[in-house]
Design brief:
The chain has 476 residues and is of the alpha/beta class. It is 39% helix and 21% strand. It has two domains: 141 residues, 2-Layer Sandwich (Alpha-D-Glucose-1,6-Bisphosphate, Chain A, domain 4); 319 residues, Rossmann fold (3-Layer(aba) Sandwich), CATH 3.40.50.720. Strands 10-9-8-11-12-13-14-15 form an eight-stranded mixed β-sheet, sandwiched between helices. It has a seven-stranded antiparallel β-sheet with strand order 1-7-6-5-4-3-2.
Length: 476
Amino acid sequence: MITLHEKIDVNRPVEEAFAYVADFRTAQQWDSTTDTARKISKGPVATGTRFELACRYPLGTFALHYTLTRHEPGQVLVLHGTSRFFDVEDEIHFSESATGTRIDYRATFTFRGLLGALAGKFRGGLEKMGRDSVQGLKNALDDKFPAPVLSSSNRRAQQLVFPAITRFTRSGFNKGRKDWLPMSRWMGDKHVVITGANSGLGLATAQALAALGAELTLVIRDERKALGLKQALERETGNGRIHIEIADLSLMAEVERLTQRLKRLEKPIDVLINNAGALFNPRGETSEGFEQSFALLLLSPYRLTLGLKPLLARAGGGRVINVVSGGMYGARLKLPLLEAPREGYSGSAAYARAKRGLMILTEEWAVQWAGEGIVVNAMHPGWANTPGVESSLPLFYRLARPLLRTPEQGADTIVWLAVASEAGLASGKLFLDREPRTTHLFSSTRETEPERAALIQALAGCRRSTPARDCQVVPC
Ligand SMILES: NC(=O)c1ccc[n+]([C@@H]2O[C@H](COP(=O)([O-])OP(=O)(O)OC[C@H]3O[C@@H](n4cnc5c(N)ncnc54)[C@H](OP(=O)(O)O)[C@@H]3O)[C@@H](O)[C@H]2O)c1
């Protein structure tokens, strides 16, 4: 039997430190021997919750199954772990200290078979590993990380274009995640609005943020799906602060009514995630006369974000996250025809152009709103296996399926932009896998300053109840 014992003081309230460690999935963020960690039992984290960790050792990885056997909020956690090499009992005590929280971490290993006889030989290595892990936990909870930057390998990949596109895949995600920093910011006092939260990336984002305790407002167009999702999230996470708002976001009247409802509540919005989207084939127009791609993917987030800006400003450090697409790399802003023309319509081209427009808005708002403490960033998820991709790009889906990311992998950067402290240090950027990326892979897609100004003017000129063909700057 070998016992490791370490104490650390962290600059965080007890409630926050406890919540972070109790969800033992976070071990993959702070314990260098843990490759991945997932919760394998249902329901909120409590006594009886089970976790599965994939731990690294010199010959590969092995599974370590933990059960939370004692969960006394703000005081003590006990986890019993079992693997083919050893059993381990982790006992973690939390108490108030001068700097915030003292964490007293004791791990007792009992090795199996021959390893038990040899245990004394690797005591030194094990003790170092324990010190490193607990130091990793301290770094995670102290949460002082620099602003995100583009790595040299991704800079080179962008210059060569093709390697940058290979990063959109699942293997690109796995490559990217190797260098990620812990994400321990407390979300219990944050209010996050997510559009399109019932499917794909929006759903994965809602699940992750609900588990982190954020208050959520989920904007969904189908009431039945919305109610089912709210109940499922509450059951799974124990989060009782999940609200739903019903709105078809392709209709500006509904965007306006949603904005007014949220404004009447006067609840500051810490994070607005403009995620709802679809790729439309064939071309269609909304009942208000707007071409669908333009309405849902550009005019709608434009209106919603501007409408909710006072609530974002009131939050102090509000964040806007615009979900764009790698497809925009092939698109150039086209003025005056922001809306896809009737002749020669391509759903992919209309989609890509609208996402390009949303990227430009991201950059413009970041500059304009810096003085109000609102940061505005965009992200693209790479290629993720979602109902949207399956239904709108069936051929691509069939061919690329083995390469696609899971919805959780696609949504990871949305969650990171919403949660990570250092993500709040960036604004006006496009992210993939938590790193800022170029907004243009080809010089031919670059727009001019007058074109950017014309885009803003065009969007401002599209009035709510004005039929599209009467828009002054965006002829339809
Ligand atoms: N998956 C990818 O590889 C990928 C790549 C690049 C960009 N994206 C972007 O990621 C975002 C999420 O897409 P996804 O792949 O997760 O697709 P998804 O599974 O189809 O989810 C899209 C979400 O948007 C909602 N939505 C669509 N039209 C709406 C409307 N008129 N009003 C309100 N909500 C509406 C959908 O609601 P319903 O369920 O009611 O339709 C759904 O909740 C989109 O902006 C998409 O462009 C995805």
